[in-house]
Amino acid sequence: MSILRGPGEYSNATYEPQGVLVDGFQYPPTMELTHNPPYYGEFLQRYGFGKVKDYCAYIFDVQTPVLPRLQKLIEEVRQRRQIETRPLNPKDLSAEIRLIVRIYNESWNRNWGFLPITNEEADSLAESLRMIIDPGLIRFAFINGEPVAVLGAFPDPYYALRPRWHPYGGSELVRIARLLLTRRRIPRIRLMFFGVRPGFRHLGIDALLFHESKEYALKRGYRTCETSMLLEENRLIQRSSEFMGAHRYKTWRIYDLPL
Known about the structure:
There is one protein chain. With about 260 residues, the protein is α+β, with helices and mostly antiparallel strands. Helices cover about 35% and strands about 25% of the residues. It contains 8 helices and 9 strands. The chain has helices at about 40-45, 70-80, 95-110, 120-130, 160, 170-180, 205-220, 235-245, and strands at about 5, 20-25, 50-60, 85, 140-145, 145-155, 190-195, 225-230, 245-259. Strands 1, 2, 3, 4, 5, 6, 7, 8 and 9 form a 9-stranded mixed β-sheet that branches. Strand 7 (about 190-195), helix 7 and strand 8 form a beta-alpha-beta unit.
């Protein structure tokens, strides 16, 4: 062994909590993401750890209408490439999860620190999020019937679970009851995973899926969307986020310590 790296989980995949939050402490935590006091990063650096990679998050107002010229551009992309899209089919969730895993693993296999998602891991994640899944926020893209991209966003249960510091407002049972009562009215979503298979990038598919998800979220009354965790060098997805009006607002860091 030559390097101690972390903090993080089994893989540096976006669906697993990674790194130490180093910027954006003033904003509330989002599901499946770490949220720590500012001094954590300072302690690691003092001990001798140094930055190896940053992940970032973008946020945008879902209720801001898409400009007409952008809508026209999206439609041109769809027609020119003959791209077909559809939402997740909740009646066949197991098969849909397998399709997500197939696209995601192929899309991410060359990304820094990535290890493939197993079907069992995907099933476990889906089971934990089953109660809040909104099928319209998970979308697939196909070209000539071949799956080429997937985008997955979820209502953020932390919005309902966040403690409210007054009598009976912060207990665990009260927060769970609040989630059960409001799970279909959560206004905040997190774009948790997004992948475009090699050979199908730079065709506008990313912008198309972003646009469709935003249009759906707008109709459903969602107010804000966070796209995370984005590798610092992943300008393709960062530009797509900026295309939808998002701005960077959080940063997480993974550290290395030479042994």
